[in-house]
Amino acid sequence: MSCLLIIDVQNDFMKDGSLEVENANDILEPINNIRNNCSFDLIALSKDWHPENHISFASTHNKQPFIDSIITKSNHSQLLFPDHCIQNTKGSEINKDLIIKDNDIIINKGMDIEVDSYSAFYDNDKNSKTELEEILKKHSINKVYVCGLATDFCVLASCLDSVNCGFKTYFIQDCSKGVSKNGVDQSLQQMKNKGIIFINSSDLIQNK
Ligand code: VGL
Ligand code: ZN
Fold first, then answer.
1. Which segments constitute the Isochorismatase-like domain (predicted)?
2. Of residues 3, 8, 147, 177, which has the active-site annotation?
């Protein structure tokens, strides 16, 4: 059984958003194309879903986005971003041009004001998790196809957790965009080391 896992295709990460990923809107067409032309048993979408004054916001600490970072309780470094994906704002909505259907599963993450969560499975200190792993196991999913935003943050973390949860994991390259070239290169290397399989949307459509 297979699941398409679409990470954080939300306005704030797209054109004119507060944490815009370059060319993010280019992934809408290939994602819609695979969901229309391939038969996944389940489609899940994650949403970065922060409260105001979230720990990952530079403004919360009177610091500068991207330049400053802070050390969190569990001793890891938290990068600081512009305010983004605040619950129930335009910026946190999934892009209107992405196809969503009634049976799709929506996973909210990053709601804890003190702990960030890049992955759709576990938060960054691995102390709490979303309902995603249970839902996938309940549906007997063994293959997870991951895509979305951003390759070097939430897509990477979701791919690594997917492998750790025991799923055969695929990263769909042309359905994802990253923040920096360096970050993406390092992320691809980490994925490779974990045995994640790289594919493009055309591979899925040819083999459907
Ligand atoms: C993300 C940075 C902060 C992402 C979310 O979706 O990749 N990146 N919050
Ligand atoms: Zn975030």
1. 2-201
2. 8
